[in-house]
């Protein structure tokens, strides 16, 4: 018996620095309604979906920096999104900048959550693989200061039960690292939701930057296939505050095939009828971890070379 989950990816065009939370939430709600009208049961929004991509600037004023973060979720400005999700009976994934106070100390994370069809948070994740720099780099038109504005995630890669299956999350640069998918794959993940804000000038090497969109799909397709899972990748795209960002949001099947793709660099909703049982054939044959995977081989290499062991 197949378990179908009609899934939407809600790609976002640019968010201006002057755009308010109210304006942005209104856009998200419009796409949520469109997704629901197409029969979607869950919609995947992007990374830092509530604001412009602020790590492109050096922000030294503490109050200004704090204005990009959410101290609670939902809060007064984001509650309408949760209310509309509950009214429509649709779940969602969303990324945002999280600010928490612990022992009088501010902690900042690049965070995402999964919300069920009743508007309840059922899962949370904090971005592990932070790209970019802690200090501004000379000669760059736009900075990439994620290491300055966020701590590495401290939750690992958990999975959650929801929408009739096993759901996982990651954010942007996480998608490039095979251990992201493998840790969730070892927990039986059936769908990985992720959002990204990827500029075309992120490496400083023109030859590498020219392959940005190819590498984007390559990493998600490989992660999906090698771990027998659906992957839903949603972009923030277009030219935002002078920075050109990649789009091509996709829904990828456990076979590694792209089954839906966005073709604009604006707000755009794509959908696919995802069979959560599709990965079963791969998990029972090619990627039967219990039968074919040999973690002891990695440990042998560590013993012989002194290399750092991989996470189990």
From TrEMBL:
Organism this protein belongs to: Ruixingdingia sedimenti
Keywords associated with the record: Hydrolase
Name of the protein in question: N-carbamoyl-D-amino-acid hydrolase
The UniProt record lists the keyword Hydrolase: yes
Domain CN hydrolase: 5-276
Gene Ontology terms for molecular function: hydrolase activity
Pfam families: CN_hydrolase
Domain of life: Bacteria
InterPro entries registered for this protein in UniProt: Aliph_Amidase/BUP (IPR050345), C-N_Hydrolase (IPR003010), C-N_Hydrolase_sf (IPR036526)
């Amino acid at each position: 018996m197949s378990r179908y989950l009609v899934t939407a990816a809600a790609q976002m065009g640019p968010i201006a620095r002057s755009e308010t939370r109210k304006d942005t939430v209104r856009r998200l709600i419009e796409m949520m309604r469109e997704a629901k009208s197409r029969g979607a049961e869950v919609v995947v929004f992007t990374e830092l979906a509530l604001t412009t991509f602020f790590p492109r600037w050096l922000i030294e004023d503490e109050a200004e920096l704090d204005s990009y973060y959410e101290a609670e979720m939902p809060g007064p400005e984001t509650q309408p999104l949760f209310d509309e999700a509950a009214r429509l009976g649709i779940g969602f994934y969303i990324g945002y900048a999280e600010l928490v106070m612990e022992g009088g100390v501010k902690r900042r994370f690049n965070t995402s959550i999964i919300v069920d069809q009743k508007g309840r948070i059922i899962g949370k994740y904090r971005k592990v693989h932070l790209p970019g720099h802690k200090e501004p780099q000379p000669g760059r038109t736009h900075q990439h200061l994620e290491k300055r504005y966020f701590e590495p995630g401290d939750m690992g890669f958990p999975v959650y039960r929801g929408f009739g299956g096993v759901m996982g999350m990651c954010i942007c640069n996480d998608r490039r690292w095979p251990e992201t998918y493998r840790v969730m794959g070892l927990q039986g993940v059936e769908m990985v939701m992720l959002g990204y804000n990827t500029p075309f000038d992120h490496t400083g090497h023109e030859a590498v930057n020219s392959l940005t969109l190819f590498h984007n799909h390559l990493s998600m397709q490989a992660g999906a296939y090698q771990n027998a899972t659906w992957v839903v990748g949603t972009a923030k795209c277009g030219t935002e505050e002078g920075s050109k960002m990649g789009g091509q949001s996709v829904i990828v099947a456990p076979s590694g095939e792209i089954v839906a793709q966005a073709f604009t660099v604006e707000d755009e909703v794509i959908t696919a009828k995802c069979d959560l049982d599709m990965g079963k054939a791969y998990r029972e044959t090619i990627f039967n971890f219990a039968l074919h995977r040999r973690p002891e081989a990695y440990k042998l290499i560590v013993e012989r070379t002194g290399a750092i062991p991989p996470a189990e």
